[in-house]
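@channel sequence for tomorrow's demo:
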Amino acid sequence: MQIKHKIILWFSSLLAGSLLVFSVYVYFTYAALRQRAMEGWLERKARVTEQLLTTKGEVVGKVTTSMAEQAILLYTPADSLLLETVTGADFAPDTRFRETVRKKRFLPFSYPSPRHDYPKEGMALTYPGPAPSPDGKEYLVVVTAYDQEGYIRQKNLRDLLLIGNAVALTFVGLLGYFFSKQALKPLHHLIDQLQTSPAGPAPFRLRPDNPGDEVGVLAAAFNDLLVRQEKLIENQRSFISQASHELRTPLTTIKGWLETSLTYDSDAAGLRKGMSQAIRELDRLTGLSNGLLQLAQIDGVTAGLHPLDLTEVLLDAADTFGEQRPGQVLSVSFGDELTRNGNALLVDGNASLLKIALANLLDNAAKYSGGQAIDLAADLESPERVTVVVKDRGIGLKPGEEEQVLLPLVRGSNAGTISGFGIGLTLTHRIVQLHKGHFTLRARVGGGTEAVLSLPLLPPSNAI
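structure tokens (generated this afternoon):
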């Protein structure tokens, strides 16, 4: 079902329900008022009969007939019929009914009449009369009548409400159609743009009628998504191009060295030299391939995270780094907030991946520092987050390259001849994202770069 049809249906249903409730309220309110008015009229007619009685218990005069099928029955205290205005009336109170009236003294009632669609109504009551009976018994009067005019007005009101509701619902349906069409017009405008968008290299963007309304916000979000998708596609193309180039270069070099050795090297020393160059290029190719595989595999990691102590991961990464670069000075420190806290740095993570991320940062810091000391520091950013910073005193990054170097196979413009593939920072960035953290690069005061990892902490109650 289309949205405009849902709007029409809901709009009409809500209004129809409101009109129905209001109509039922009006109809039954009028019916109750008519019934009370009829009961009041019947009571007055019954009370009038007391004025017709003499002290001797005789009836003098008559009651004016002002209601359709009006009938009056008057009984003496001895329960004998004293007055009957209509002979053969359609209601004849039996003994049991009269006894009930004498007990209650006042009884409105109604009964079905075969000649009418609505019931006839009556009133029965007792009064002492001009000469009360010594034994306390009273006169009993029963008045019945048919409220013809009242029922006609009630029926006319019912028909009017039914016709009015039908007309109102028809009008509401048309109004709802017009309203839904106008409300969804901006969406239809966007759909038309999508269906008629030209195919080509030129970037496509939605143009909303009103950028400030909800449809405009939706169009802006869709345009932002298009920008990200275009950027992702461009990055993928760049990655494929650079990866192809990076893989082709060592393969071409290896082939060249092997062909040269086979053609020109006739002694063992020359062959060993050619094979050594080929092995170095193979090592470079292996390192690049491993980096690309790690980068591809990290995107598929969705499990394997469990509570662990980040302090142990930091110390383990520092020890491994010291073994790989024995001459490199590494300073490890923990901040005052972390020391005063005294709790373990519990994070929901994968120890192997976090160690890879820290190893990449430490290795980069060592490569670009030219042998100068590097720092590894950890401290509490807040009670819920921990920050790990790797500082170097190397060549740093040029302004504006902090985001670019996080892309695959992209290196700083000042990297020069320093070995590397441009994969380590990308891998670190994705590992941190996997752990719901943040990773940023910033210039260090005094020269060099600071790599900052921010990770969410688990509550201390989560045991490892």
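heads up for whoever presents: DSSP finds ten helices and twelve strands in the chain.
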